[in-house]
Model the fold of this input.
Amino acid sequence: MMNHSLKNLCKVIPGTIISGKWHGKHYQIVKELGFGANGVVYLAKHLNTQVALKMSDNGMSITSEVNVLKSFAKVQGSTLGPSLLDVDDWISDRGRISFYVMEYIQGPDLLTFLQQKGASWMPVLFLQLLSDLEVLHQNGWVFGDLKPENLIVTGPPPKIRCIDVGGTTIQGRAIKEFTEFYDRGYWELGTRRAEPTYDLFAVAMIMINTVYPKRFNKTTGGLSQLREAIRQKPELSRFNQVIVKALQGHYKAASEMRRDLLEAISDKPRQGHVSAQTAKPKVQSNQPGQKASQSLTRQTYREKKKKNGWTEFFIIAFVIGLLYFLYIFIKLL
Done:
């Protein structure tokens, strides 16, 4: 959580005008949206447009987050994070405060949206999230502090977006920010090294969180407690294998988890596995009715084959006749 001195330094009241020292743009504060370890985020207005403005006395933190947003902007087709609009310093009576301005993403957070629209939207939104994470990972980043509070659903059509990139970390480094419930280190199921498996663990925990909106505390910890939590909720039964594989770090890429989630939604049998219906052994019977049925089937097949043969013959004869007629007609000309 953010220290009090930092929040007091960045605390401003609605109506305050934030003026950029270098670019000269002015932003009127509307209200506070939230605060974290490295700054406070406000809803602000600029030229009658709503924007999100984050300020901090930690210039290095601001620079790091700005670089993340710039990297996102270079990735075509990725809409995971907000668009970066401005970066500047504000000279206040409390000293110089760095800030950046980004797109204001409006909408309910993930859990609120699911409560309003129904749980059937859950897998659809997670498929979107995994697609964006795949792009993010391919470009060398790990989101890190992935949790429902940071995930906003915009639309229509519904689209999942993220509003906080403060925890985004270059792959291979230590995770910068995390929230215990979604952190595999807290559950003793992995390290806090920035790699795709870290984000996918958090995705699995968010899926669990959708049916445990108030979360739950670690008791025994480890996989056993999480398996039991999944088992107690029938809503998670069809996604059980996907969630557990992500918790265990078996998915090396978001695309792998997305593929299995899509398969679970469509209820398609896994490749190499035989469905229960297909696996049923054929019971042979010596009853007369069955023999008669088999004989009738063979007779029907022979008749159908014979009929198809005559149809094919007449079609070929017609085509040959037509070609011959055209040949004679052209020769007479």
